[in-house]
Amino acid sequence: MAASNNPMEQFAIHTLKPLSVSGFDVSFTNSALWMLVALGGIAIFLIIGTMKPEVIPGRWQAALEYVYDFVVGVVDENVGPKGKAYVPLIFSVFVFVLACNLLGLIPWVGSFTPTSHIAVTLALALIVFVVVLLVGLINHGFHFFTFFWPKGMAWPLALFIMPIEVVSFFVRPFTLAIRLFANMTAGHVLLKVFATFVVALGSFDLIPYVFGIVPLAVNVALSALELLIALIQAYVFALLASIYLNDAINLH
Amino acid sequence: MPQFEPANFLPQMVWLVVAFAILYFVIVQSTLPRLARVIDQRKAKVDSDLAAARKAKDEADALAEQIKAELQRNREAALARIGEAKAEAANSSESRLAAAEAEATGKTDAAEARIAKACEDARSELRKVASESAQAIVTRLTGKQPSESAVTKAVDAAMAR
């Protein structure tokens, strides 16, 4: 199999401009480029949507408000009235993950999905985790750590449960990161595998092209599914981020 | 798998933090509050409009209630007036009827009295005439004038029959 048929090749990181800050490698890569592309897309959407905000919204504003209302709904449902201040954060997380997920679905050889890299998703999850930790500590001080003590439980049992609570708390950024990365990677591998089938079956010498139609149709269907997954994973990421925020704001 | 290449981690994580910081601190903070403000404005407008509509409805309801009460009052007054008028009419017609009846009775009595008097007059006239004629007849037959008292007596006896 040629190198270009390797389904993992789409995840390859190419350094576009080697950079280094005090010995640390911070090269500008295709991953960074696509993050900036996502940023640009979001910026255009947000700037046009809020160019001249009206009580009766125009198309762009209505579209932006739809997304905004969605995020407000998620935060309001999971955190309550105290969560209002964190809407911009959850909104940023949601649109960033969504934009990265969707950009990777452009059927073009140069497209890249930053969220298919665990480094990216882990960094994002760690940002959320650190914010949650800070919000919890600022709001409740060291009282925040009573979060690990299961409430209303007989103490011998609680003693066993507490380590589980601690582990499940500190494992959160990793589950958050792995969920998104795994979903994106799996989807793109699947798309790529079927795409190679299109070429392999379509280049059958006796009856050219005909057999390529089947995997192509599968790929079209898979693309629709991946669109759904891109949306759902962005939603799940934002949802879990707001659930974690809720723990920090409204200590149980 | 390029995802697990340790060399790929740091540049991506750094760039993600940079990109996310730009997104959160620059793009979102400069645009989203404008949207939130206009959404709040809309909510305030809708709420105030709704409140105004509710107030107007309440006012209209109160007015309708007032009109209804007034109508009811007027109807009752009218009914009372009608009853009064009816009673009055009944009263007055009764008294007029009584007066008319009394008048009619008076007239009848007077007429009866006149008739009785006429009858009596006629009788006394008849007696006079009968006495005179009887006197004349007796005088012609006997050539002797009968006494007036005898004639009257005889006439009376004949008339009593």
UniProtKB/TrEMBL annotation, chain B:
<comment type="subunit">
    <text>F-type ATPases have 2 components, F(1) - the catalytic core - and F(0) - the membrane proton channel. F(1) has five subunits: alpha(3), beta(3), gamma(1), delta(1), epsilon(1). F(0) has three main subunits: a(1), b(2) and c(10-14). The alpha and beta chains form an alternating ring which encloses part of the gamma chain. F(1) is attached to F(0) by a central stalk formed by the gamma and epsilon chains, while a peripheral stalk is formed by the delta and b chains.</text>
</comment>
<feature type="compositionally biased region" description="Low complexity">
    <location>
        <begin position="88"/>
        <end position="103"/>
    </location>
</feature>
<feature type="coiled-coil region">
    <location>
        <begin position="50"/>
        <end position="88"/>
    </location>
</feature>
<protein>
    <recommendedName>
        <fullName>ATP synthase subunit b</fullName>
    </recommendedName>
</protein>
<dbReference type="InterPro" id="IPR050059">
    <property type="entry name" value="ATP_synthase_B_chain"/>
</dbReference>
<dbReference type="GO" id="GO:0046961">
    <property type="term" value="F:proton-transporting ATPase activity, rotational mechanism"/>
</dbReference>
<keyword id="KW-0406">Ion transport</keyword>
<keyword id="KW-1133">Transmembrane helix</keyword>
<keyword id="KW-1003">Cell membrane</keyword>
<keyword id="KW-0813">Transport</keyword>
<keyword id="KW-0472">Membrane</keyword>
<dbReference type="GO" id="GO:0012505">
    <property type="term" value="C:endomembrane system"/>
</dbReference>
<dbReference type="GO" id="GO:0045259">
    <property type="term" value="C:proton-transporting ATP synthase complex"/>
</dbReference>
<comment type="function">
    <text>F(1)F(0) ATP synthase produces ATP from ADP in the presence of a proton or sodium gradient. F-type ATPases consist of two structural domains, F(1) containing the extramembraneous catalytic core and F(0) containing the membrane proton channel, linked together by a central stalk and a peripheral stalk. During catalysis, ATP synthesis in the catalytic domain of F(1) is coupled via a rotary mechanism of the central stalk subunits to proton translocation.</text>
</comment>
<dbReference type="GO" id="GO:0005886">
    <property type="term" value="C:plasma membrane"/>
</dbReference>
<dbReference type="InterPro" id="IPR002146">
    <property type="entry name" value="ATP_synth_b/b'su_bac/chlpt"/>
</dbReference>
<keyword id="KW-0175">Coiled coil</keyword>
<feature type="transmembrane region" description="Helical">
    <location>
        <begin position="12"/>
        <end position="32"/>
    </location>
</feature>
<feature type="region of interest" description="Disordered">
    <location>
        <begin position="88"/>
        <end position="110"/>
    </location>
</feature>
<keyword id="KW-0375">Hydrogen ion transport</keyword>
<comment type="similarity">
    <text>Belongs to the ATPase B chain family.</text>
</comment>
<dbReference type="Pfam" id="PF00430">
    <property type="entry name" value="ATP-synt_B"/>
</dbReference>
<keyword id="KW-0138">CF(0)</keyword>
<dbReference type="GO" id="GO:0046933">
    <property type="term" value="F:proton-transporting ATP synthase activity, rotational mechanism"/>
</dbReference>
<comment type="function">
    <text>Component of the F(0) channel, it forms part of the peripheral stalk, linking F(1) to F(0). The b'-subunit is a diverged and duplicated form of b found in plants and photosynthetic bacteria.</text>
</comment>
<keyword id="KW-0066">ATP synthesis</keyword>
<keyword id="KW-0812">Transmembrane</keyword>
